[in-house]
Design goal:
heterodimer, A: alpha+beta, 31 strands, 37% strand, B: 74 residues, Ribophorin_I (chain A), signal (chain A), endoplasmic reticulum (chain A), transmembrane (chain A)
């Protein structure tokens, strides 16, 4: 073993000398010697669908130079997708940067992915580093057998390296596999490094191992019962719509899948209802999402419409949002729905007083315990006019693939559309849902855009009314009779107008007199009133007007016909008025004699007919008269 | 870099009140404008424009606050 190590070292030194200008990927082909792991405690929590490795490392810089890089490795043969987080000491406050990842091969031709961790400071020669590395592995716990039927328990398999995979030599290390139950079907029991694994209740322990070579590798598998619901999101879209009028609307679209052992055979609802835990031990009936304390106006819907089975419980620092899907989920079943709520701007949106930039700090995922997401999309719909959108901090570590894109979306009160900033990544777990921070520029006047748009719209309507009431849209030309008249004709025309005004006035007064007669007056009183009016408008009613018309007819025959027409109509009107008065008088006399010769109905009918003829003729006169002058 | 929490110009809990206020005033102003424009025989363009400005400012704000109060944050 020592010789082998020596040879490896020798080869690596030669390789370094040979290719000094080679890339990182090529030079990483070498086992690293600048650190030595004094003691490593590795715990893998396998109680859920996510394999959570917590590795406590005590390492010493045994190189010749100080360094701020520590490298961890993950064998490529293991299934699933890994997320790495690293912390100094035992606190989990500030996660360290994961710089890059690259693939390398060990002597046994085993491939590894290496991840460089940027430490908090430079560690000098012989100094000790206490590091905590968390590896969250998704899809590594696999249901075996892959299908189960009603009433069966879900068994799963987990395969990994028995050693903590490190490019450095390790003096002492131990791996503990924490299972969800003590019902273990099997675990690899071959002798590794002179040690056999031991099972104590829910734990399977490999090690302790002494003086483990760099990139040492020994595959082990545990097969055990795990009835946890394997709730995962094949697709997740989370949208934040920011309004500077004091609201952040959050909408989340879920495509959930129970990723456990696939259900085979029929599903008996009766059996399930009678004993849910025994009938389908890993079923999902309820999902609890933790949302910010300030959340309000929850909704839970799907393609069909609103789903009423949701509740929310405000707690001290957060709100528990419980959603119950339309049907229980067992292995392999899917469901999709969306939820939403509103957040106030105050704690989440901040303004930088120096630069005037806005900074939005919100959750990057869905806080559902033990869930992971395959395709993760985050969208930020910012107010119209927002520019220079940047990510300040992201929880998706340096090793993950993150795509950013921009789009435009038009909703209420928009003109050019709101900028949409989209972040796409894959394989994220609830473990690394730290807040995401984005920042953007927005003019302080931009918030007045929407009210001004509303005001402008109403103003346009008002302008339309103003214009519409001022233009003439009638098909008939109103002033068609109004043609130029010679001065002589005009003189006569004015005389005629004066006389005819009197006639119009006479008709109106007569109408009043008839009305008075119809209501209260007597026949005698009416006669008196009629004579008074005839006396008053004597001039107008005389034949003077006729004389003017005959004078005009010699000068302007066309105009004179109009005037003649007016006079004829006026005479007609006089006749109709006297008819109405006669009719009224007749009715009176009938009433006095208590005769039934004319019924009330007939009287009304005739009267209405006369009045409507009168109205029509009168309006006709006025229209003609106005069109002439 | 000093970050301060961003609060909107008007407290969102006051939006329903403003919606009611501006819609009532706005409808009154708009009907005044409409009546004067549609019925008066002597039309004065300045009077019409003044009434239109008042009506559009109040009714426009009314519509805007109705949206906000109704949960459509624009």
């Amino acid at each position: 073993m020592r010789i082998q190590l020596f040879v490896t070292l020798l080869i690596s030194v030669i390789a370094l000398l040979l290719c000094t200008s080679s890339s990182a990927a090529a030079s990483s082909n070498i086992v690293k010697t600048n650190w030595i792991n004094n003691d490593v405690t590795r715990t893998i929590d396998l109680s859920t669908q996510i394999a959570k490795q917590t590795i406590q490392i005590k390492a010493k810089n045994q190189g010749t130079q100080s360094t701020n890089i520590y490298t961890v490795a993950i064998p490529t043969f293991v299934d699933g997708h890994q997320q790495i987080q690293a912390f100094i000491g035992d606190s989990e406050k500030k996660s360290l940067n994961i710089l890059q990842s690259y693939t390398t091969k060990s002597n046994e031709n085993q491939e590894f992915n290496l991840y460089d961790i940027e430490l908090d400071k430079s560690y000098s020669k012989d100094s000790t580093l206490i590091l905590k590395v968390k590896i969250i592995s998704m899809n590594q716990v696999v249901a075996y057998p892959p299908t189960i039927s009603q009433g069966q328990n879900q068994l799963v398999r987990f395969t990994d390296n028995a050693y903590f995979t490190s490019p450095y030599e390790t003096e002492s290390q131990k791996s503990t596999f924490k299972l969800s139950s003590s019902k273990v079907e099997s675990y690899t029991q071959s002798v590794i490094d002179g040690q056999t694994a031991t099972q104590k209740g829910q734990q399977v322990v490999y090690g302790p191992f002494r003086n483990v070579a760099p990139l040492a590798f020994s595959s082990v598998t545990v097969h055990y019962e795990n009835n946890q619901p394997f709730l995962r999101l094949t697709n997740l879209i989370k949208e934040y719509e920011v309004s500077h009028w004091g609201n952040i609307a959050v909408e989340t679209f879920y495509w959930i899948l129970h990723g456990g052992a696939k259900w085979t055979g029929s599903f008996s609802r009766l059996d399930f209802q009678r004993n849910p835990a025994g009938s389908a031990p890993s079923h999902i009936t309820e999902i609890t999402e933790i949302v910010p304390r300030e959340s309000a106006d929850f909704y839970y819907r799907d393609e069909i419409g609103n789903i009423s089975s949701s509740q929310y419980y405000p707690k001290q620092t957060e709100t528990a949002f419980k959603i119950q899907p339309r049907f229980p989920l067992v292995g392999g079943w899917k469901n999709e729905f969306y939820t939403g709520y509103n957040l106030p701007t105050a704690p989440f949106l901040q303004k930088d007083t120096d630069t005037g930039r806005f900074q939005l700090t919100v959750g990057a995922g869905v806080s559902i315990e033990n869930i992971f997401v395959q395709d993760h999309t985050l969208r930020f719909i910012l107010p119209e006019g927002a520019t220079d959108i940047k990510v300040v901090r992201t929880p998706f570590g340096g090793a993950s693939k993150v795509e950013e894109s921009f789009d435009i979306r038009k909703t209420f009160f928009d003109t050019v559309g709101r900028p949409v900033f989209e972040i796409k990544t894959e394989y994220t777990s609830f473990e690394n849902y730290e807040p995401i921070v984005i920042s953007y520029n927005l003019s302080p006047l931009a918030i007045f855009h929407e009210p001004l748009l509303a005001i402008g719209a109403v103003f346009c309507l008002c302008l339309f009314v103003i214009v519409f009431t001022r233009i003439d849209l009638s098909l008939l030309k109103r002033s068609s009779n109004k043609v130029a008249r010679t001065p002589e004709v005009e003189k006569n025309a004015q005389q005629f107008k004066q006389l005819f005004d009197g006639r119009v006035q006479y008709h109106q007064d007569m109408e009043d007199a008839i009305n008075t007669f119809a209501r209260t007056g007597t026949a005698q009183e009416f006669q008196v009133a009629k004579q008074t009016l005839e006396q008053k408008y004597k001039e107008s009613l005389s034949s003077t007007a006729n004389k003017i018309v005959s004078t005009v007819s010699a000068l302007d025959p066309v105009f004179s016909t109009h005037l003649k027409d007016l006079l004829e109509k006026s005479t007609q009107l006089q006749q109709i008025q006297s008819q109405i008065a006669d009719h009224e008088a007749k009715q009176r006399s009938n009433k006095d004699q208590s005769s039934k010769s004319v019924s009330r109905f007939q009287y009304e009918e005739i009267r209405n007919k006369l009045i409507s003829t009168y109205r029509k003729t009168f309006d006709d006169i006025i229209t003609t008269f106005e069109s002439l002058y | 870099m000093a970050l301060v929490a961003y609060e909107s110009l008007i407290d969102p809990s006051a939006y329903p009140f403003f919606a009611f206020l501006f819609v009532v005033i706005g409808l009154f102003a708009f009907s005044t404008f409409a009546v004067s424009e549609l019925t008066s025989t002597k039309k004065n363009i300045f009077k019409g424009l003044t009434l239109a400005t008042i009506a559009s400012a109040t009714l426009g704000l009314g519509i805007f606050f109705v949206f906000l109060a109704g949960g459509i944050y624009v």
